[in-house]
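Hey team,

Sharing the ABC transmembrane type-1 domain-containing protein run so nobody has to redo it. Sequence (296 residues) first:
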Amino acid sequence: MRHQANPWITSNLWLLSAAMLPAIILVGALLFFTGWAITFSFTDLGLTGRKAVEWSWVGLENYERLFTRKGFLESLWTTVIFVFFSAIVGQSVLGFLLAATLRGTVSTTRSVVEVCIMLGWLLPDIVAAFLWSATTSQTGLINSLFVVPFGLKPINFINDFALPVVTLANIWKGTAWSYLLFVAALDSVPREIIEAAKIDGATRWQRAWLVVLPIIRPHIATNLLFITIWTFTYFPLIFAMTGGGPGRQTETLALFLYNQSFARGNLGFGSAISVAMLLIVGALSTVYLRMLREPK
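Structure output:
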């Protein structure tokens, strides 16, 4: 097969190998740390103290703890709620609706909306967390404009409605990705097909449901794949806003992993949590990858 390849490729294999070296190193590092996590998930490795140097094998004990002790299942349920309403319902649906509504329009309103969307995406997580914490506090903007002027008691939204507030903050932070992807997807739909459906008498809703959505189905699956993975493992915004509290109301799996591994120093148990997260994300990715396949 080598004599059938491009002559330049066969004479410059060393150059191509050198260009691939950074990618090979990166993949090797990812495989190494994945193997590290899997291996130490079967140990009682600690972050500090005697267990940091004199750890021992505990078999499946860490994985049994996931289902027999409080913490993991509660955090998994919190993560499912957060991912569903923040990523799937919030970012994906809102991004599509904005892209479909603003498509083909050139106006000040569209520019303002796009600036607001991009601002949330570009702001550092810590800054976004500070803005949302300040806005939803008892002396924040919401209470000052919509609660106190009507003679009502100030509401501490970040304490009383922690998970909904964090969910809304993440929707505002991440909708830009879905919006940009759906703008590109809708622009790829041939106008001739839309016009043909209109001539055949299809309503606007029928054109969207029966024509546009099937065409951009791979884009929808790609968007869901990325935002589900990102949101499932998301950490900075929640940690900066609530730290997983009040209580454990916003303790997603990412925060539960952090608390067990670094706050409590249980690296072995934390490794088991990370492996469980890897398996869950892998299963979700398989579902989305099946959606990417063309229907037979």
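Residues 72-102 form the longest helix (31 residues).

Ping me if you want the raw files.
A.
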